[in-house]
């Protein structure tokens, strides 16, 4: 029997649908121009659908992941992923600084007019204290990702402790509760699949509006900065490949699974919004939910390799525009600030400008040149978010490689399909 159009459409890989939407949106945006903003609601709807899934998905996946293993095992893997996130962020921001110093991307540009005061992020101490929520339900309602992660981990660890307490009554109750959480988690992945089917339309609108507003000419004055950021991300990805190769990870298999979340992150510019797709990729790599259930949501919040690289390059760019030579102390401060600021920066479009404002202030540079960077922030945000998400997945694979308990046996690897985080 011959397949219908819709049957062929559903079987067509999502990654190709998204890429077709991206190309069509880019061409349409450049041809039509600013008037293409009429399709903006289609892109906004896609982002809202993704954001709708983030909080419940993070909450229930973290609980299931943390409860699925012994607390001692969770602690060991947690330390490893945290160390990885901090070290790779430091590598990224250093790479951004060094590349920008070599290229001097802002040289020859003039200062823009004074703009409005940049929105500043909270102090690091406030960010760290804010991780512990006074009201977990308010944190869920307000989208406070760090607080939700903390509370879900605490609940999951407590549930895991009950499962392994050795008391039959407590273990039985905890298994029943865990089964409910797992059921809700499966429902969330069904919703993820449905939202992904809408992705090509949303991607078309997002790209069309972005290029319709900026146009090709908007990239010319800042082409060197754009080249530094894009080139730096490429080098960071090569660093990931080297790290994976040293651990004996099959690069072809890994990058084949990673291409979908990388493409989704590039077009949506949201680490949190891409989280469902990144989880599917981790499952496809045979990594257990017990690991990626907490490493990926945590990474989407505190691991911002691409954004750290962008900050390093942009601070040098601002210094070039202002005609200021950065001292070694200022450069060191930029590196430290870039790593620490990522802890409190949400994985949503445009959050990198908040981190950049913090780094600019810390370095004692004028804020006015930030307006130049903001003009192409959407273009830079695409590639830096892709790097952020890639770093999360690489970190999860690195920990899984060093912790065999978190890897599925080959015969048990999750299959592609609705309701399965593959």
UniProtKB/TrEMBL annotation:
Main localization of the protein described in the UniProt heading: membrane
> Which residue windows are transmembrane per the record?
12-33, 45-69, 81-103, 145-162, 198-220, 227-251, 307-324, 331-348, 354-376
- PANTHER family with a match to the protein in the record: PROTON/GLUTAMATE-ASPARTATE SYMPORTER (PTHR42865), PROTON_GLUTAMATE-ASPARTATE SYMPORTER (PTHR42865:SF7)
Topology relative to the lipid bilayer, per the entry, is:
Multi-pass membrane protein
Q: What is this protein called?
A: Dicarboxylate/amino acid:cation symporter
Q: Is Cell membrane one of the keywords?
A: yes
| Compartments it resides in | Cell membrane
Keywords tagged on the record: Cell membrane, Membrane, Transmembrane, Transmembrane helix, Transport
Q: Does the keyword Transmembrane apply?
A: yes
Family annotation (InterPro entries): Na-dicarboxylate_symporter, Na:dicarbo_symporter_sf
């Amino acid at each position: 029997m011959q397949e219908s159009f819709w049957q062929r459409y559903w079987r067509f890989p999502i990654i190709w649908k998204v890429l077709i939407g991206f190309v069509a949106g880019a061409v349409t945006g450049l041809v039509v121009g600013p008037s293409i903003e009429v399709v903006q609601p289609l892109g906004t709807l896609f982002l809202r659908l993704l954001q709708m899934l983030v909080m419940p998905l993070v909450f229930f996946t973290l609980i299931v992941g943390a409860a699925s293993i012994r607390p001692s095992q969770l602690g060991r893997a947690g330390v490893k992923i945290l160390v990885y996130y901090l070290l790779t962020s430091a590598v990224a921001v250093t790479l951004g600084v060094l590349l920008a110093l070599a290229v001097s991307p802002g040289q020859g540009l003039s200062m823009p007019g004074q703009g409005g005061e940049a929105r500043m992020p909270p102090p690091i101490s406030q960010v760290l204290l804010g991780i512990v929520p006074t009201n977990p339900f308010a944190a869920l309602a307000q989208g406070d990702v760090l607080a939700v992660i903390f509370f879900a981990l605490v609940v999951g660890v407590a549930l895991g402790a009950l499962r392994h307490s050795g008391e039959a009554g407590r273990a039985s109750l905890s298994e029943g509760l865990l089964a409910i959480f797992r059921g809700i988690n499966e429902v969330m992945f069904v919703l993820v699949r449905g939202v992904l089917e809408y992705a090509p339309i949303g991607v078309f609108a997002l790209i069309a509006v972005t290029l319709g507003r900026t146009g090709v000419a908007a990239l010319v004055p800042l082409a060197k900065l754009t080249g530094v950021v894009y080139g730096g991300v490429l080098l960071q990805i090569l660093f990931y490949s080297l790290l994976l190769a040293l651990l004996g990870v099959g690069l072809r298999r890994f990058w084949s699974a990673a291409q979908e979340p990388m493409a989704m992150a590039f077009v949506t510019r949201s680490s949190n919004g891409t989280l469902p797709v990144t989880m599917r990729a981790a499952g496809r790599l045979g990594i257990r939910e017990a690991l990626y259930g907490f490493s990926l949501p945590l990474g989407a919040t505190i691991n911002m390799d691409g954004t750290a690289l962008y900050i390093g390059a942009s601070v040098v760019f601002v210094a070039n525009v202002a005609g200021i030579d950065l001292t070694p102390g200022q450069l060191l401060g930029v590196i430290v600030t870039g790593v620490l600021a990522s802890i409190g920066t949400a994985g949503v479009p445009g959050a990198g400008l908040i981190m950049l404002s913090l780094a600019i202030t810390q370095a004692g540079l004028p804020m006015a040149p930030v307006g130049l960077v903001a003009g192409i922030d959407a273009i830079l945000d695409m590639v830096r978010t892709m790097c952020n998400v890639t770093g999360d997945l690489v970190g999860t694979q690195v920990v899984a490689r060093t912790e065999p308990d978190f890897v599925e046996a080959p015969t048990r690897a999750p299959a592609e399909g609705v309701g399965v985080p593959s």
